[in-house]
Design goal:
Jelly Rolls; 411 residues; 5 helices; 2 domains; mainly beta; 8-stranded antiparallel beta sheet; 8% helix
Length: 411
């Protein structure tokens, strides 16, 4: 029911002159409720991080050099990770994962953020500038402005999330209606344990949460830029640029705070690796043995360098480059190292092809590919602007096509 005093403040005379708004008001009033202020669970209440039982934090760190270390996670800072009494520089670690792996968990409510991050839990509250997610592991807090959508899990959730109006001028509440749903455009101002408060035609209306399937805010998505890391937590995944962890809590991007026990895995390579195979070149010069072939439509792309998938005896994807090719790339900002290995693209072919690499016109690598044995390559890219790759015949025109196995630039 709705507080009778609020009915007296509704501008019925104005709504009657606008049938469309009258219908919207009817929808909201049908599910309206007296606002009951429900306090957010505090430090001593259900769902608080203090209520999480003490658990161990055994993790395994896989390092860039291929080695690994396993033990009790002590801390993660902006520059290092401590496992037992070992301190690892952050840029030396590829993957950090709880051991054994954390169990997946799906709650009754799902939060979707503007940057593509997702969290799930048992309850959701919002007051002023702070959104709160209550989960079995404890309380998660984050800035409300990061949220784009709240979905209360139900059989109809897939329908409404895939049926959003193309153009709206306000927030949306999704009201259950029979076996379907209805979108109501308004301004969402608060979420308590019992109601969602919305503003429609300058009137504040509390709507019972039991009648709602979800909420959608009128907020733009954040540009899809590669984060520094991808953080898997119990019930979700976060895109992050900064992270601090201690045995009590996990702080992501200085704004999202979670219980320490929710950390499941961190992929530090998410924003640290750039594939050379897919990085657009600044310049490509290809001259086949019969030079005129490069000018025939369709053949130019055949002779040009191209990415190739794993398979046919190669465990990783690669970059295929033919002799008499020069490729120049502009090096991404904060690049540190080029790492790959080169070999003939076809087993059994060897001899006659030379590979050279130059950084800012300074040659840093040159070797003849004269066997099927992979030749490891590591090139320092710090403070460099351009990388040039040249593949050519050593003497006669019989050298093999060269494959660069998983060529990546590490930041």
């Amino acid at each position: 029911m709705i507080d009778i005093r609020s009915l007296a403040r509704v501008p019925w005379h104005a709504l009657l002159r606008h049938p469309a708004r009258w219908m919207v008001a009817q929808t909201l009033l049908a599910v309206a409720a007296v606002v009951v202020v429900s306090p957010i669970h505090g430090a001593d209440g259900v769902g608080s991080s203090a209520a999480v039982s003490s658990v161990g934090h055994a993790f395994r760190a896989d390092r860039v050099d291929g080695s690994g270390i396993e033990g009790e996670l002590r801390s993660i800072s902006s520059s290092e990770i401590r496992i037992d009494d070992v301190t690892l520089p952050l840029d030396s670690v590829r993957i950090l994962e709880r051991s054994p792996a954390a169990a997946a968990a799906a709650g009754r409510v799902r939060l979707e953020c503007r940057d593509g991050s997702m969290l799930s839990g048992e309850d959701f509250l919002w007051s002023a500038e702070t959104a709160t997610l209550i989960s079995a592991a404890g309380t998660v807090t984050l800035p409300a402005e990061r949220l784009r959508r709240v979905v209360w899990q139900s059989t109809a959730e897939a329908d409404w999330t895939q049926s959003l109006p193309e153009s709206v001028d306000g927030d949306l509440v999704v009201v259950a209606k029979g076996e379907g749903f209805e979108f109501v455009e308004c301004a969402i101002t608060a979420v308590t344990a019992d109601a969602v408060t919305v503003v429609l035609d300058e009137e504040t209306i509390p709507v019972k949460r039991t009648k709602l399937l979800g909420l959608q805010w009128l907020r733009e998505t954040i540009a899809d830029e590669s984060p520094a890391m991808v953080v898997d937590v119990v019930g979700g995944r976060l895109r992050a640029d900064r992270l601090v962890w201690d045995p009590e809590s996990l702080l992501v991007d200085d704004s999202i705070r979670l219980p320490a026990a929710m950390l499941a895995r961190i992929d530090f390579t998410a924003g640290r690796l750039v594939s050379l195979a897919t990085l657009p070149p600044e310049r490509i010069d290809v001259e086949p043995f019969f030079g005129g072939l490069a000018r025939i439509e369709g053949l130019a792309s055949y002779f040009a360098p191209r990415p190739v998938p794993a398979g046919e005896g190669f465990p990783q994807p690669g970059l295929l480059v033919r002799p008499r090719t020069v490729v120049v790339w502009r090096i991404p900002r904060a690049a540190r190292l080029l790492r790959t290995a080169c070999m003939p693209a076809v087993a059994g072919r060897s001899g006659g092809t030379v590979v050279s690499l130059a950084v800012d016109d300074r040659e840093v690598f040159r070797q003849s590919i004269d066997s099927n044995r992979p030749v490891p390559i590591e090139v320092d890219l710090r403070d460099a602007r351009r990388l040039s790759l040249t593949v050519d015949f050593e003497s006669a025109a019989d050298g093999p096509v060269v494959r660069f196995e998983n060529p990546v630039i590490e930041k």
